[in-house]
């Protein structure tokens, strides 16, 4: 049993995924929607939309006011703005940053013998890069 | 005749102007493309909106009619004039300002040039907004808030937008479009779909009864606001596309002019140079003859 969720803003499609549960902030309060729910149209308030996946992961998306329509286990959220706060995207960027740093390190090691202080400098650079990415 | 150095300096100046104009032309082309892409990018949003609208029957909408859809006797009009922030776009702003309707109207300006014109000509200006080149959706929210408040309070009876309608890259025409009051609910929506060249699709309906949370009236209220915002956003995108295409054409003309001017100046430079050489030879010849 799964629920198909699509989140739309006028500029882009924020997400289009299968989930096992969807929690939204309506103007009346929080609503959790599970598969096989009755068809419903909900007026959404500014708040967070949480998607729970079958592997247990939870993704939070900040959404502005809008409308949710659910019919035949297909939920459509039409909102003005939406931002993926700490979803899979951030993890991917951090992984990417780490991989890039490792590659850069390897490349320098292969180039020639590395002094201890140079190695320390590089490590400091990696840490700074990682911090930057995390802050983003 | 001008000196050699003077002509040379002018050639250099004209060449650099031509380079700048060409760069601006390229920038305008890419910005225009972006505005057009954005207009196309909002299609999925519109399609999904149509899925929701399919669930609302005409009967239910008539029962919960939003003030935006109720026709009014028009007394005080409010006109939103969409100009540009920067100049260098040919006659774009001038032709737009010429088509500002007469009579006692209120005005809202978008863009610095529109603000300057309306305040200089002493039109009653209610507010002045500025929209950046990216025309993000949240930028229209402020304008929509203001006009819906004024409209619902009865301070204005209609809202119209005056902007340069984008026809193609070379042509645009001043156009006055009414935003409020809107016509029928489904009519407005069909028009929105038509402008995005989409058809209203009817989706398979769930047989179980539809629930509304909190109630259908509030959902229709929200829909009306979405219509207003979406339409205004589309108009702004179109105005931006016109602005960039006008700038592109103006800059193309400037580049061409600069190039022909540079050609003329080069000819003049050669003439001056030749004149100087001839003079020198004549002087030499004259002095040689004197020596004899």
Provide the CATH superfamily of the largest domain in chain A.
F0F1 ATP synthase delta/epsilon subunit, N-terminal
Main pleated-sheet profile of chain A: 5 strands, mixed
Average pLDDT over all residues of chain A: 84
Note the main sheet of chain B: 5 strands, mixed
* Total beta strand runs of chain A: 10
| Quaternary assembly | heterodimer
| Broad structural category of chain B | alpha/beta
What portion of residues of chain A is helical?
25-40%
Stretches of chain B where pLDDT is under 50 for at least 5 consecutive residues are none
Domain tally of chain B:
1
Number of strands of chain B: 6
Describe this structure in words.
The complex is a heterodimer of chains A (136) and B (292). Chain A has 136 residues and is an alpha+beta fold. Chain A folds into two domains: 82 residues, F0F1 ATP synthase delta/epsilon subunit, N-terminal (ATP Synthase, domain 1, Sandwich), CATH 2.60.15; 48 residues, no CATH class. Helix content of chain A is 32%, strand content 41%. Chain A has two helices and ten strands; from the N terminus they run E-E-E-E-E-E-E-E-E-E-H-H. In chain A, the strands form two sheets. A five-stranded mixed beta sheet of chain A has the order 2-1-9-8-5, with no helix packed on it. In chain A, strands 4-3-6-7-10 form a five-stranded antiparallel beta sheet, with no helix packed on it. In chain A, helix 1 runs antiparallel to helix 2. The longest helix of chain A is centred in the last third of the chain and has 24 residues. Chain A is elongated, with a radius of gyration of 21 Å. The two termini of chain A are 36 Å apart. Chain B contains eight helices and six strands; from the N terminus they run αααβαβαβαββαβα. Chain B has 292 residues and is of the alpha/beta class. Chain B is elongated, with a radius of gyration of 29 Å. Chain B starts with a helix and ends with a helix. In chain B, helix 4 links the parallel strand 1 and strand 2. Chain B has a single domain, classed as 3-Layer(aba) Sandwich (Pyruvate Kinase, Chain: A, domain 1), CATH 3.40.1380. Chain B has a five-stranded mixed beta sheet with strand order 3-2-1-4-5, with helices on both faces. At the A-B interface, strand 5 and strand 8 of A face helix 2, strand 6 and helix 8 of B.
């Amino acid at each position: 049993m799964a629920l198909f969720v699509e989140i739309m803003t006028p500029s882009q499609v924020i997400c289009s995924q299968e989930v096992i549960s969807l929690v939204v902030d309506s103007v009346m309060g929080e609503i959790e929607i599970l598969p096989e729910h009755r068809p419903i149209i909900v007026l959404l308030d500014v708040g967070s939309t949480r998607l729970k996946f079958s592997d247990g992961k939870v993704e939070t998306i900040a959404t502005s006011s809008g409308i949710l329509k659910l019919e035949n286990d297909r939920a459509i959220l039409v909102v003005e703005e939406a931002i993926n706060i700490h979803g899979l995207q951030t993890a991917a960027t951090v992984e990417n940053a780490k991989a890039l740093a490792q590659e850069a390190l390897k490349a320098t090691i292969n180039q020639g013998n590395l002094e201890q202080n140079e190695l320390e400098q590089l490590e400091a650079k990696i840490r700074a890069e990682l911090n930057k990415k995390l802050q983003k | 005749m001008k000196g050699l150095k003077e002509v040379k300096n002018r050639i250099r100046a004209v060449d650099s102007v031509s380079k700048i104009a060409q760069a601006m032309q390229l920038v305008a082309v890419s910005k225009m493309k972006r505005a057009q892409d954005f207009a196309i990018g909002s299609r999925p949003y519109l399609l999904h909106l149509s899925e929701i609208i399919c669930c609302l029957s005409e009967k239910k909408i008539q029962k919960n009619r939003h003030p935006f859809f109720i026709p009014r006797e028009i007394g005080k009009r409010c006109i939103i004039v969409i100009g540009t922030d920067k100049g260098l776009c040919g006659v774009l702003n001038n032709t737009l300002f010429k088509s500002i309707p007469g009579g006692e109207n209120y005005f809202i300006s978008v863009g610095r040039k529109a603000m300057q014109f309306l305040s200089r000509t002493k039109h009653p200006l209610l507010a002045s907004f500025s929209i950046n080149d990216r025309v993000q959706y949240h930028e229209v929210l402020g304008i929509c808030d203001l006009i819906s408040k004024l409209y619902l309070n009865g301070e204005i009876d209609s809202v119209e937008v005056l902007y340069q309608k984008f026809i193609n890259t070379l042509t645009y025409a001043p156009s006055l479009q009414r935003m409020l009051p809107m016509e029928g609910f489904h009519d407005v929506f069909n028009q929105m779909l038509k402008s995005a060249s989409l058809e209203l699709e009817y989706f398979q309906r769930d047989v179980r009864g539809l629930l509304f949370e909190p109630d259908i009236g509030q959902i229709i209220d929200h829909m009306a606001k979405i219509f207003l915002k979406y339409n205004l956003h589309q108009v702004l995108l179109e105005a931006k596309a016109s602005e960039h295409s006008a700038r592109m054409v103006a800059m193309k003309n400037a580049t061409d002019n600069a190039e022909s001017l540079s050609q003329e100046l080069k000819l003049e430079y050669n003439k001056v140079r030749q004149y100087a050489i001839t003079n020198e030879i004549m002087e030499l010849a004259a002095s040689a003859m004197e020596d004899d």
